[in-house]
Amino acid sequence: MRLPRLLAGTLATLAVAGTALALVAPSASAATVNHHHPKLGTTSLASVLTSDGNTFDHNSRDYDIVTQAVLAVLAAKPKSPVGVLTDGSVPLTAFIPNDQAFRLLVLDLTGKYVRSEKKVFAAVAGLGIDTVETVLLYHVVPGVTITKRAALRADGAALTTAQGGTVTVDVVCRWHHHHAVKLIDQDPNDRNPRVVAFDLNKGNRQIAHGINRVLRPVDL
Fold it and tell me: Could you read off the pLDDT of 176-214 as tens digits, one per residue?
């Protein structure tokens, strides 16, 4: 995949940053939405993501591409901080982009709408394993288990991610007192992701929420 020169330079900067990643402690604002409970289970998010066979299909609302991205990073870098997703004893909250979210990312980067999930993944992998690792870690908030209920009460909270950057929670009222959760990333020009599926792996220390766009840790 050939990227514009400016974009390629930005992604190269991301890749360099990705070589020195470490899990960070949750920020104070993140801690305010942590509902820790000693009886929470230890089923890992990795086991949930791979439970359906993690094969590419025609369902744009599931998480095949992000699952393959996690597996690719761990295959190339077994000691990557992404490995925390395989340890269900470690509390964390992940915002995981669905397959359509990655399709929209590739459209933004290349100007081409790619329907095949396999080809979308190939385009994402083409950014380089360090860049993929960095982006994945930007979707993980370590140390806190943020349920839907907690998220809806966290308007304005700045969550520190495992990548080191922050994501801000934006709770908006859409209609008839129905509230939606958006996430404001570090790219002021793109459309911010919205949570479209709450409480994946609910009842465990590692919880996830599905989002409809990929969070961006830098201004692309």
Answer: 678 999 999 999 988 999 999 999 999 999 999 999 999
Q: What are 143-177's pLDDT values in tens digits?
A: 999 999 999 999 999 999 999 999 999 999 877 67
DSSP SS3 for 208: strand
Taking alpha carbons only, the member of 40, 52, 62, 59 closest to residue 210 is: 62
Residue 6 half-sphere exposure toward CB, CA atoms < 13 A? 3
From the list 29, 15, 111, 103, the residue with the least C-alpha distance to 62 is 103
Within a domain: 193? yes
Structural domain contains residue 175: yes
Q: Please give the pLDDT value at position 54.
A: 78
**Cα distance between residue 140 and residue 136, in whole Å:** 7
DSSP helix/strand/coil, 98? coil
End-to-end CA distance of the chain: 17
Tokens 């907690």 belong to 150
The reported pTM is 0.86
Q: Which of 137, 144, 138, 148 is nearest to 197 (CA)?
A: 148
The per-residue pLDDT for 34 is: 52
The answer to the question of residue 13 being in a domain is: no
Q: What CATH code is carried by the domain that includes residue 199?
A: 2.30.180.10
Do the domain assignments include residue 174? Answer: yes
Secondary structure (3-state) at 210: strand
List the domain range (segments joined by +) for residue 58: 21-211
Number of domains the chain is built from: 1
Q: Which residue has the tokens 């590739």?
A: 106
